[in-house]
Specification:
Length: 251
């Protein structure tokens, strides 16, 4: 398979970011320009979530799409395994103010411990305040929902080796890969995810990047210690989205 380098081209990126932001900001702003170049930077996202919540009427911001579009990829993975009695641990990597993590907590009939983690304290605080002010009824009484400010380049400092069952990444690796200085961070985050995932675990990356570029990148960066699969999620505003499924290989 050939890598189509233009798939990460500035033009496509501009279209993609503008399309995602069109729901949040009516006009092209200096913030859009900042995002296009610096989506790997905490300050950029603090500013984004602050400006997006300037009227203080909190609304979840969804990059690409919401929980409903991806739940069928996630919920079946949460079924308890006969060999493992512990509660399933789920991490929303770069959660922003998305309702994805809370949605998993609400809709999983099986017990789960969902952690919503982001480098932006502004996003984490907004999401946590929302959950405090409007408590969510879990799909299972044993489930837990927690919020965490964390640079996911340092996942292994926070989570034990092979301690997480499912990691969901909706737009976070895309944000790193497309930033001026973010590519090494994207590779590091992938390696950190593989370090904290159980052998039976799975990392799901939701992305608009074409498989001919992303699969090769994933295979190269994971050092062939993981299997990579891909399925289409669907098309939104003319852009096709994919779910990349990365599972550790047995040693
Ligand atoms: C494109 S947004 C996606 C947000 C959310 N997943 C969604 O679907 O709306 C990327 C998110 O990744 C976060 N982020 C960027 N770099 C990060 C890092 N090193 N560690 C944790 N989160 C990071 C940003 O703060 C931002 O919330």
């Amino acid at each position: 398979m050939a890598v189509i380098a233009s798939r990460r081209s500035p033009t496509r990126l501009l279209t993609s970011v503008r399309s995602v932001l069109s729901g949040a900001f009516r006009q092209h702003s200096s913030l859009t320009t900042d995002l296009i170049e610096n989506m790997d930077k905490k300050e950029t996202w603090d500013r984004f979530y602050r400006e997006n919540n300037v009227k203080r009427d909190f609304k979840n911001f969804e990059w690409f799409f919401g929980f409903d579009s991806v739940q069928d990829f996630i919920l079946p993975l949460l079924r308890p395994q006969p060999s493992c009695a512990t509660i399933r641990r789920v991490l929303d990597l770069g959660c922003g103010t998305s309702a994805l993590g809370p949605g998993i907590y609400k809709h999983s009939q099986w017990p789960v411990h969902v952690t919503c983690a982001d480098i932006s304290p502004v996003a984490v605080q907004l999401l946590q305040e929302q959950a405090n002010s409007k408590p969510i009824q879990p799909g299972n009484p044993s489930s837990r929902l927690t919020f965490l400010e964390l640079d996911c380049c340092r996942l292994q400092a926070r989570f034990g080796e092979q301690s997480v069952d499912v990691i969901v990444d909706k737009g976070t690796t895309d944000a790193l890969l497309r930033s001026r200085e973010g590519q090494p961070k994207a590779g590091l985050v992938l390696k950190q995810c593989l370090g904290v995932l159980r052998q039976s675990g799975c990392l799901l990356q939701f992305s608009d990047e074409d498989p001919d570029a992303r699969v090769l990148w994933l295979e190269r960066e994971s050092g062939l210690v993981a299997r990579v699969g891909v399925q289409e999620v669907g098309t939104l505003r003319g852009v096709c989205y994919y779910c990349y499924m990365i599972t550790p290989c047995a040693p």
